[in-house]
Every structure is written in structure tokens, then in C-alpha cells.
Specification:
Elements: H1 2-19, H2 21-29, H3 38-41, H4 45-58, H5 65-117, H6 121-124
Length: 125
């Protein structure tokens, strides 16, 4: 029984991750090319919060509006959290890339110095 519930949970999460627009956008933002768009993506939380307020107002009339309001709040929080997380990851990646460039430049300089100090045997005599 537990295995069936676990399998259905995984399949449902995979479906939502693959086909829901906010999950697709957040997956793109968390990749290396999209890290710079993390902070601007935080602005997408504003329309979601406005929609949540509108759906909350409609719950007085009955229906499933409270569930839609909860979904909008959840998506807004996902975007609000993604902004600072991607900013920190971007800083770490850029620092790592800068350090790699420094090491590469030092190695090239060292190789160049070794090439200039070494004299060809044919030219010595």
C-alpha cells in the first residue's frame, strides 16, 4: 500500500514538474544560463498575489476559488524564494569561474616563462 502511494506521489510530482508553467520557468531560471533572470523573476510573484486576493474575494460566492487562491499564493512564494536563491548561486558560479580564469592565466604565464628560459640545444653551440 505504501509503495503504491509513494509511486503515485512521484508520478504526480513529475507531471507537475514537467507540464506546469511555473515549474518550467523555475527550472529554466535555475540553470546556468537562467541564473541572471532569478531576481527579475521575483516580480512574477506580484500578479500571483493579486490573483490570490481576487480569488479570495470570490470565495464568498462559493466554489473552488479558495483552492485557486492557495495555488496562486504557493506560486508566488516559489518565485519569491527563487530570486535570492538564484542570486546567491549566480555569485558563487561567477566567483568559481573567475577563480578558474585566474588559475588558467597563471598556468599560461608559467608555461610562457618556462618556454623563454629554455634554450634550444641547436642554438647553444
Amino acid at each position: 500500500m505504501f509503495a503504491i502511494v509513494f509511486a503515485m506521489t512521484i508520478r504526480t510530482a513529475t507531471f507537475f514538474r514537467r507540464f506546469m508553467p511555473t515549474s518550467i520557468l523555475l527550472d529554466a531560471v535555475h540553470k546556468r544560463r537562467g541564473l541572471k533572470w532569478g531576481v527579475p523573476a521575483m516580480l512574477l510573484a506580484v500578479p500571483y498575489l493579486l490573483a490570490a486576493v481576487a480569488f479570495t474575494g470570490l470565495t464568498e460566492h462559493g466554489g473552488w476559488y479558495s483552492l485557486l487562491a492557495l495555488l496562486c499564493v504557493w506560486n508566488a512564494f516559489k518565485f519569491l524564494v527563487a530570486g535570492p536563491v538564484t542570486f546567491v548561486r549566480l555569485l558563487r558560479v561567477r566567483a568559481r569561474e573567475a577563480r578558474a580564469r585566474q588559475i588558467l592565466a597563471m598556468l599560461e604565464l608559467e608555461t610562457e616563462e618556462q618556454d623563454t628560459t629554455r634554450v634550444e640545444p641547436a642554438l647553444q653551440g
